[in-house]
């Protein structure tokens, strides 16, 4: 087990860095749009000082754009905060639905660059398991990242989580119906180590375009 932890140390840092860089890029876009609209408001102020008539609808539209970006920035920061807190406790109770939603939000920019849409199956009830939050988020990201390499013609991947006996299944639906060998999904030592530490198994069902990650209800120490 020690060897597994050693190989995952660098991987964990890279995962945190990759997600942090993506989040900062999104926040810079938010600030750029706010700054652009603030510039327009300044132009209107100058026009008003010169006695020019200002269209109230245009002002309202600019104000609405700024409010929209503030809300977007707030959502980005909330997700970043949740992600950062995934490192608080090595082993704890996790709401799997909330974790899936967090990872999908983290991955949305990467998916957009690959022209792939990500969704989760709506649910109002938490699905609680005992696991390692940060490593679980890392594993889900790696599954999602690899799934996008094999996405089907609709270019859409839907994630869902269900309980089956003593196990929990996370299903990535929307993959190609062409045969996919599991080593092609998870080829690296880090991938294998994540599966081992989290006591997970990975299976593919090409006929229905699915990848399934099976987790225990409780991950051992």
From TrEMBL:
Coiled-coil portions: none
Gene3D superfamilies linked: 1.10.287.130
This enzyme's EC code(s): 2.7.13.3
UniProt-listed InterPro entries: HisK_dim/P_dom, HisK_dim/P_sf
Stretch forming the signal peptide: none
Gene Ontology molecular function terms on file: phosphorelay sensor kinase activity
Keywords of the record: Kinase, Transferase
UniProt-recorded name of the protein: histidine kinase
Organism field: Candidatus Desulfatifera sulfidica
